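Support request from a user on the community tier.

User writes: "When I paste my structure tokens into the form, the page sometimes reloads and wipes my input. The last time it worked, I copied everything first. Here is what I submitted, just in case something in the input itself triggers the reload:"
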């Protein structure tokens, strides 16, 4: 056993693990670019103050924080949202709107490590700043769906649960709740899935027993799973005009836009999602696997006040983050994680001395031309080199023996078709190009 092991919740990435991680990053980056998002990054270490109260109680207790040698209270970033708000806030005047940005970065939370949860993990973050209307939700949720569907996952594999903190507040207001009561009821809703009726205990302690009619109304709201059911429920309650009606119109726009993009099957109305982070103000959503085996794949929502709270201008925002841990597990479970074999294009076999020197010249020329070329660092007997060539998975072997050199040729062996021919020395790059252009790669 090794003397030192990685810390709990921190992962080692052996080459095969890194290949899988890079696959996730590649798909996310490609889709973010297709949607017109620009990539940014920020510092790993931030002032502790950036997360205090802004991110919410839960994240605050999970911070990796310490005092640096200059006496500053600092924290490893647990999420990107406060950082990106600072970045955008500082240049808001000069950035073309809407501002569509994405990043892929590592985050740290002192959580209990379990399936789908680590203390260090990666997130793909995407956010739109400067658009207050539901058009931004359509764009951001479409990107979220595509960032999972881009791996070959379908609407049978995952879905986005869409909810709305504004709708909840307007609804609870229509039931006669004060702002304080609505807030405790929303925390109860956040816990309801896990705790059932016990979730309402906190409310009862703070505000007295929850009236049965009010509780029934909250539970009925939680049952709503479609736009038609939402429409009907609000109509029944007489919400034909005012805030609730205006909000329903926003819902129609968001779901209508997503349906027009052909993404209707990926999105489900589910008012059970209210999101734990403190800064969300309107629509909120989370992506889950359909089987319900895993923790959330992604989460996000609108946060119209955070840029301003962090000292920037009044700038509406909506965004989300997908985590690498649950996404990786889901891809494996559904069999859509590709076999990421890192085979060279060409394996070079050579004798010692002059053949080796000639071979090294070609190795470098081919690599500089963009081919993946491998060779044994110390040339063992030919038999071993041939075995290494076939084990490497390369499509092609180049053989530099003294007999070939004397004839002024190199052997060009197609390892898949098991065919062989000779090509003139100096003609390797050309032959290579012809071979791979003809579909050999
Ligand atoms: P979050 O819900 O805290 O949101 O995290 C988003 C995703 O990151 C989760 O759904 C999960 O997949 C992954 N994640 C979070 N914590 C861990 C962990 N300890 N281990 C593994 N994966 C984890 C946010 O972070 C918001 N800042 C997202 C956002 C961006 N909202 C607006 N813009």
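"...and here is what came back when it finally went through:"
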């Amino acid at each position: 056993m090794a003397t030192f092991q990685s810390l709990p919740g921190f992962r080692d990435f052996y080459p095969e693990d890194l290949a899988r991680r890079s696959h996730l990053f590649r798909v996310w980056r490609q889709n973010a670019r297709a949607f017109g998002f620009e990539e940014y990054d920020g510092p790993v270490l931030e002032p502790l103050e950036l997360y205090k109260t802004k991110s919410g109680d839960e994240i605050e207790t999970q911070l990796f924080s310490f005092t640096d040698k200059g006496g500053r209270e600092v924290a490893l970033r647990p999420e990107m949202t406060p950082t990106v708000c600072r970045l955008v806030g500082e240049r808001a005047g000069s950035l073309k709107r809407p501002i569509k940005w994405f990043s892929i970065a590592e985050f740290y939370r002192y959580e209990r490590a379990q399936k789908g949860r680590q203390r260090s993990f990666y997130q793909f973050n995407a956010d739109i700043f400067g658009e207050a209307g539901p058009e931004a939700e359509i764009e951001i949720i479409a990107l979220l769906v595509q960032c999972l569907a881009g791996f070959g996952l379908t609407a049978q594999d995952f879905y986005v649960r869409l909810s709305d903190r504004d709708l909840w507040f307007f609804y609870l207001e229509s039931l006669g709740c004060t702002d304080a009561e609505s807030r405790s009821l929303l925390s109860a809703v956040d816990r309801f899935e896990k705790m059932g009726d016990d979730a309402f205990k906190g409310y009862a302690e703070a505000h007295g027993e929850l009236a049965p009619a009010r509780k029934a109304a909250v539970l009925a709201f939680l049952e709503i799973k479609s736009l038609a059911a939402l429409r009907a429920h609000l109509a029944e309650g007489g919400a034909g005009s005012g805030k609730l009606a205006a909000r329903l119109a926003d819902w129609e726009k968001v779901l209508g836009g997503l349906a027009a993009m052909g993404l209707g099957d990926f999105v489900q109305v589910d008012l059970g999602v209210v999101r734990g982070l403190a800064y969300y103000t309107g629509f909120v959503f989370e992506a889950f696997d359909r089987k319900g085996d895993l923790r959330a794949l992604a989460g996000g929502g609108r946060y119209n006040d955070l840029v301003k709270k962090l000292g920037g201008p009044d700038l509406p925002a909506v965004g989300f983050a997908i985590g690498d841990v649950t996404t990786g597990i889901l891809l494996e479970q559904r069999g859509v994680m590709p076999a990421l074999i890192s085979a060279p294009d060409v394996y070079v076999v050579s004798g010692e001395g002059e053949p080796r020197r000639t071979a090294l010249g070609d190795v470098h020329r081919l690599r500089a031309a963009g081919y993946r070329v491998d060779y044994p660092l110390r040339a063992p007997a030919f038999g071993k080199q041939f075995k290494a060539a076939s084990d490497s998975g390369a499509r092609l072997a180049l053989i530099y023996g003294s007999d070939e050199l004397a004839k002024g040729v190199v052997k060009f062996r197609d390892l898949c078709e098991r065919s062989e021919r000779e090509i003139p020395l100096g003609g390797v790059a050309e032959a290579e190009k012809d071979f791979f252009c003809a579909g050999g790669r």
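Agent notes: The reload is a front-end session timeout and is unrelated to the input. Residues 79-81, 109, 111, 117-118, 121, 123, 125, 127, 277, 296-300, 319-321, 323, 325-326 surround histidyl-adenosine monophosphate (CB under 6 Å). The mean pLDDT is 94. Escalated to web team.
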